[in-house]
Amino acid sequence: MQNLYGFYWTEEEILKREEKIMVEAFNNVYEISCQYNVNLRTAAYMLSVKRVAEAMKAKGWY
Q: Residues in domain Glutamate/phenylalanine/leucine/valine/L-tryptophan dehydrogenase C-terminal (predicted)?
């Protein structure tokens, strides 16, 4: 993204953004894990399938 838009971020800012994304991803997976009483690996798979289905529906393929 930096190169596409000509943005230049410091290493600290990149690490902050990366941490935010990783924490949010973990929280999403953990929520599904608790909701359906499955392990984190299965929850991550469930989330990925859900996202693909939503993208297909948005494009009219579903």
A: 2-60
The C-alpha angle 28, 62, 31, rounded to 5 degrees, equals: 10
Q: At what angle do helices 40-58 and 11-36 cross, to 10 degrees?
A: 100
Domain boundaries, the chain: 2-58
Residue type, 53: A
The structure tokens listed for 23 are 């924490």
Q: How is residue 59 annotated by DSSP?
A: T
The per-residue pLDDT for range 20-40, each reduced to its tens digit, is 999 999 999 999 999 999 999
Supply the mean pLDDT for the chain: 92
